[in-house]
Write a structure and sequence with these properties.
With 443 residues, this protein is mainly α. It folds into three domains: 1-98, no CATH class; 128-242, Tyrosine recombinase, N-terminal domain (DNA polymerase, domain 1, Orthogonal Bundle); 260-388, Orthogonal Bundle (hpI Integrase, Chain A). It is built from 19 helices and two strands. It has helices at residues 3-16, 19-24, 30-49, 60-73, 77-97, 143-146, 154-160, 166-186, 197-209, 214-234, 260-268, 276-291, 296-300, 330-342, 366-380, 388-401, 406-413, 418-421, 423-439; strands at 313-317, 323-327. The protein has a two-stranded antiparallel ribbon. Strand 1 (313-317) and strand 2 form a beta hairpin. Helix 1 crosses helix 3, helix 3 packs across helix 5 (77-97) and helix 16 (388-401) crosses helix 19. It is globular and about 65 Å long.
Length: 443
Amino acid sequence: MSGAARAHAHVSGVRDYEVDQHCRTLRSSDANRAARQAELTHAAEYFVLHGALVPQRVDAELVSDYVQSLEKVGYSVETVEQRLAGVAAYFTWFIRTHKPAKGSAPLVHPARNIRIAHSSSCVQCRAHEASPAVGQNLKGECDVRDARLDTWSVAAFESSLTASAANTRAAYRRDVELFAEYMLDGDAKSRPSHVTKAHVRDYLAMLHDRGATSRTIARRIASLRRYFVWGMRQGLNSLDPTEAMHTPKTKGRLPRPLDEATVATLVTSRDENAPQWKQLRDHAVLEILYGSGLRVSEVCTLSLQSVASDGASLRVMGKGSKERLVPLSAPAIAAIKEWLGVRSEVAGEASGSSLFLSARGNAVSRRDVARLLDDACERVGIAGGTHPHALRHSFATHLMDNGADTRSIQELLGHSDAATTQRYTHVSKEKLRLAYSETHPRA
């Protein structure tokens, strides 16, 4: 077969995977769909190059080889897991939408039992996830994970960000990893010293074409700028390819609070089929998220000592290791008391002094909180669900609507800048404008 014929067969084979049709069925943002399509196209190209010209020819061995190739090249643990999950979801869709002819054997899911050599569920990786110490890696120090993208020294870069919060360090590292993987897709031997302004511009253009917001692009630029300045000090690169690069103007997003009746229904709902300890824990978490306006990360790091001796307030460690005292609502006080009465049912050696625990006795994670909120939204019929930060928005907005002053709300939320709190005055103005337009005869 000639080179032209092989190229035609390759393009035709990738088209037969119908990746674009699958991605159109995803309930996600345009940016996420575009990213998933690029990842699945990458996988389809690999399968076609290795003889599977149609999806029906892909078997478990080929999927396993693909995953191993990603790990061998040095893709981050998160990326490998994400791509395997995408491939698994794709084949679930393909098998469901492409029924075999009558009398033919049913298709076997080739990605169902594939395992990743190194997973983010690694004990070392998760060692400090719930409550990382200042200057520590958010996921703990892991030789296997930190050896990925070795020429880019992402672990050392993250460790250098000692003045930043754990989540900020993790976000900066992830941004650099994603850019490094973009470079690796073009050249497997790519390293920081090879990066030019053109590479960065092409990367940002790709993000824009995929539908990334200006806020996302601005943060990626900030992460890369920080990385390349650090890299120059370490001798990884001699020039900063982000120098004088324009950062897009970000639009301020107004919070989207829930109305008071919806929140009341949400936080008081119970899963009657769940064990009692889980019902009481979930209720207490929801009451605190809304009743005290805590961030989800603050809820996850609460300890038994965080609860005041009288049970009426919480000592919270917020962003930048700033401590504040927040009052508890009467329902939250009662909910915490009930939870503490059954906490021993799931507590174990790994529990320590963490206030809220998972079924395994570990401190609850952000994902645990998001999951229990998703379950509550499903129970009360909130279409599309919501997220933990929406309860914090609702807390602040309802205080503002009922006459609380901006300074008090700022203290309760732990905002260092009053301008951040003033977003909620705009929400209240929108409420006034809506009331006017609905009730004034000449509106």
